[in-house]
Amino acid sequence: MPYDFISLDKLEKTGIIRLQRPAALNALNHQMIKELEQAFMEWEADENVRVVIITGEKNFAAGADINDMLDFDPEQARAFSFHQCFAQIEAFPKPVLAAISGFALGGGLELALACDWRIADKTARLGLPEINLGIFPGAGGTLRLPRLIGAARAKEMIFSGRPINAQKALEYGLINELADDALAEAIQTAEMLASKPPIALKLAKQCINQAFDIDGMKANHFELIAWASCFATRDQKEGMKAFIEKRKPEFTGT
Ligand code: HXC
Q: In the CATH scheme, what architecture does the domain 6-194 have?
């Protein structure tokens, strides 16, 4: 499928998605969201892609496109929702990293929140300014942000609409790393993750995601079943054998 608002690249086993609408600071429109859904669908089936990075041309994304939303009625707003796309990214069975430079605002920050790992550089400004538009974050922000940084700080960001810089985002636990070059650092992290056993990574991600949605007993049970199923993989034998033989494991994803 041809993409108009994103571009896709592969670097070894890392897939890189660039949001590419620089004149509007990568403001997310309906087509861009559909293109993201398509890209993640393609790469879910692609064994050669083990990790995905989302980044943006100059900026990450300054939110949903306000021009598109101006005249929405509630039904149109629901149809415009990014929930499906961001849930697809959150549930994607491989690690997804966000490499953030410049603005990551509103739906742009909510996109980063759906990723597993966020790396920003000093230029990053992260915030949820929707309140200043008479709305509030509607693409998972009221759920994922408090889970990540706690309700008090999430309320501070959502009620005030004030963006924070990367240093503060690091202190809040909103980003994992503050780097000189967000994309270069994300590529290094992705290469490290691409060398890990994909099935164990996928199951660990599912366990962590589930842990927030189900009670402790069920979460433990789910973890036990997922963990035990690692022993059906060649990668488990390889990982343990390599340890015993004092060599580096070669994981094949089987
Ligand atoms: C549409 C946008 C945009 C947006 C920027 N642009 N953000 N267009 N929607 N979210 C456009 C501007 O209109 C302008 O276009 C160009 O990008 C450059 O932006 P400037 O404002 O001139 O740049 P600057 O002065 O540097 O200010 C940068 C900024 C500001 C602080 C990021 O653009 C801004 O406040 N943007 C809106 C941020 C926001 O409120 N995001 C939340 C959206 S609601 P022209 O044509 O004039 O050059 C949301 C809901 C999510 O995300 C849930 C949805 C389901």
A: Alpha-Beta Complex (3.90)
DSSP 8-state code for residue 23: G
Give the residue, by CA position, lying nearest to ligand 1 atom 17.
Answer: 24
Q: What is the pLDDT of residues 80-111, one digit of tens each?
A: 999 999 999 999 999 999 999 999 999 999 99
Is this prediction's pTM over 0.90?
Answer: yes
Within 6 Å (CB) of ligand 1, which residues are found? Answer: 24-25, 27, 62-67, 80-82, 103, 105-107, 129-130, 133, 138-139
- According to DSSP, residue 246 is labeled T
- The string of DSSP letters for 73-130 reads -HHHHHHH--HHHHHHHHH-SS-EEEEE-SEEETHHHHHHHTSSEEEE-TT-EEE-GG
The answer to whether 111 and 89 have CB atoms below 8 angstroms apart is: yes
**Helix, strand, or coil here: 165?**
strand
DSSP structural state of residue 101: -
Catalytic residue among 75, 110, 191, 238: 110
Give the whole-angstrom CA distance, residue 132 versus residue 241.
57
Alpha carbons 131 and 162: distance in angstroms, whole number = 10
Q: Please say if 177 is a catalytic residue.
A: no
The domain 198-244 is classified under which CATH number: 1.10.1740.10, 1.10.12.10, 1.10.150.130, 2.120.10.30?
1.10.12.10
**CA nearest to 205, candidates 116, 88, 102:** 116
pLDDT tens digits for range 198-226: 999 999 999 999 998 889 999 999 999 99
The predicted structure's pLDDT at residue 9:
97
